[in-house]
Specification:
With 350 residues, this protein is an alpha+beta fold. The chain is 62% helix and 13% strand. It has 2 domains: 139 residues, no CATH class; 161 residues, Histidine kinase-like ATPase, C-terminal domain (Heat Shock Protein 90, 2-Layer Sandwich), CATH 3.30.565.10. The C terminus is likely disordered.
């Protein structure tokens, strides 16, 4: 979205520039003259041509940036300099000299040195005004680029986060369906936990960062649902090893790793599965470890390590939010281990 400057504010800036220029060219420059009032009158009379020449020059340079007159710019600029230089010479010769500086009439109207001096007088101020104008335009363009980048970043983050929501909801509803068949008495508890999870996902997760404790509570609710489903087959531990109340984290960042541990932990319908989730702080690093048992031939874990949708989503979110301030390590051996380290300072957003 383009940055819009109010016309009144823009007009005020232009008027202020020309007032400052006249103060310099009139009152200040005339302070060393024998008759300051005459110099001030001359500066006022010559000002309109300088204003017109300045805005025409800015117009020509703008046409270059728009790729309209690149090859003909030198010709247009040269002709305009001659035109405005001669126009200023006429103003000086016909108005300023007779009333203020009669000795200037000793040279003819078409006197090249005087015309060149008029050109330098005009285009010194035109150059200054052009530099100010295009410096300001460059600054506005940079702000617009930054704004577009931020909007693109937010849109991409929302898209990646939205991918988590339906994926998680589908799995949880699937679990709920299975539970209503195998153990319907536990279905109300699942619905309640699911409502808590959905509340977090719909409202709190829309914030850029949330307290880590809130994210942990979200994971605890998720684990509770899985415990209801798998009962004694699941051995899971969630260990909070440090004081973490002051830390903020991007929402829904830990879930894909925890959810993945259930996926390839229970890839077969027999046997017992263990999952360990450790969250700790080491100096200025938040460390999240998720480790789980797995089958020797586990295509889900392999897919996650080699770049499946889950990992791709997580990496993109980490790149967008934390950039170079994180480290992600995935180990797929006897067990599947995820180690996520995020540079973080207490009481500060990442």
């Amino acid at each position: 979205m383009a940055i819009v400057i109010h016309p009144a504010k823009k007009l005020f800036g232009h008027v202020l520039f020309w007032i400052c220029y006249y103060v310099y060219d009139g009152p200040i420059a005339s302070s060393i003259e024998d008759e300051p009032s005459l110099q001030m009158q001359a500066a006022a009379i010559s000002l309109p041509v300088k204003i017109i020449a300045t805005y025409f020059t800015i117009y020509l340079v703008r046409q270059i940036y728009q790729d309209k007159i690149q090859r003909k710019f030198a010709i247009y600029l040269g002709l305009s300099m001659l035109l405005f230089g001669f126009l200023q010479r006429i103003v000086s010769y016909k108005i300023i000299y007779p009333a203020i500086y009669p000795q200037g009439l000793s040279h003819p109207l078409f006197y090249a040195p005087k015309i060149i001096m008029e050109i330098f007088g005009i285009y010194s101020v035109a150059a200054i005004a052009s530099i100010i104008y295009f410096s300001r335009q460059w600054y506005i363009n940079q702000r617009e680029k930054q704004q577009l980048q931020n909007e693109k970043l937010q849109a991409e983050l929302k898209y990646l986060k939205a991918q988590v929501h339906p994926h998680f909801l589908f799995n949880t509803l699937n679990n709920l369906y299975s539970l209503t068949i195998t153990d319907p008495q536990k279905a109300p508890e699942v619905v309640y936990k699911l409502s808590q999870l959905m509340s977090y996902m719909l409202y709190d997760s829309n914030k850029p960062f949330v307290p880590l404790q809130m994210e942990i509570e979200y994971i605890e609710n998720y684990i509770t649902l899985e415990k209801i489903r798998y009962q004694d087959r699941l051995d899971i531990s969630l260990n909070i090893l440090d004081e973490l109340q002051s830390i903020q984290i991007a929402p829904l960042l830990i879930l894909p790793f925890v959810e993945n541990s259930f996926k390839h932990g229970f890839i077969n319908d027999n046997g017992k599965v263990w999952i360990h989730l450790d969250i700790l702080k080491n100096d200025d690093k938040l460390i999240i470890k998720v480790e789980n048992s797995k089958e020797k031939s586990d295509p889900v874990a392999t897919n996650f390590v080699e770049g499946g949708i889950g990992l791709t989503n997580v990496r993109k979110r980490l790149d967008l939010i934390y950039k170079d301030a994180y480290e992600l390590q995935l180990v797929n051996e006897e067990t599947f281990l995820v180690i996520l380290k995020i540079n973080i300072k207490p009481n500060d957003n990442p």
